[in-house]
Amino acid sequence: MVAKTIQVENVDEHLPKLLRGADDESQCVRQMRNAVLGNDLDGIARLSKSAGRKLMTEMLWLAASSVVCNPETIIKLIDNGADVRDVDGTGRTLVHEAASWLNFAALEPLVKAGVPVDSEDHSLRTALIEVVNMRHTDKIGLYRTVKTLKGLNSDVGHTDKWRRDAAFYAKLNGNGGVSNLVEHNA
């Protein structure tokens, strides 16, 4: 039996590549990735001088998806040219990315920098709807992320293109505590 290789086109793989590194990446990219994941603010500032806006923005996506990155790292990347208005191919923003990875500490600096807390992806889902629709095993991280989004005035009544809100998805996925938080400000 011969194994068959399937190639998928148009898949955005820049984050996994940045996380694991690649043989063909430049020294600048490797150093910047290490600085971001290590919360090396001086390293980010120094390397940003030779990095372009695109690389700084990719590193901001990396930081948003990584719970090891602290808010100061997010702020440093933004201050050094990362584009907070960047969206992925499905219309997701950096707030969607941070929320989906339960990186609640990244949410406030991203919103303060101009990423709308209730921006919609192509399915009209906000970060709040997206995070409660995922099957996270880290219930404390999920609760803290939802609480942070609510504290940033995320619209709990917003519905997606199927007219379902965050409370619906929280109940659907068995997140009773989160469902109470969404519905009753618990």
Specify the number of helices. Answer: 11
The fraction of residues in strands falls at under 5%
Spans of at least 5 consecutive residues whose pLDDT stays below 50 are 1-16
Report helical residue fraction: 40-55%
Rg measurement, Å:
18 Å
Biggest sheet layout: none
Total number of β-strand segments? 0
N-C termini distance: 57 Å
Mean of pLDDT = 87
Task: Give the overall silhouette.
Answer: elongated
Content-based structural category: mainly alpha
Written as H for each helix and E for each strand, in order along the chain, the element string is HHHHHHHHHHH
Describe the structure.
This protein is mostly helical and 186 residues long. Helix content is 53%, strand content 0%. It is built from eleven helices and no strands. It has helices at 14-20, 27-37, 41-48, 53-64, 71-79, 94-100, 104-112, 127-133, 139-151, 166-172, 176-184.
Short description:
The protein is mostly helical. It contains 11 helices and no strands.
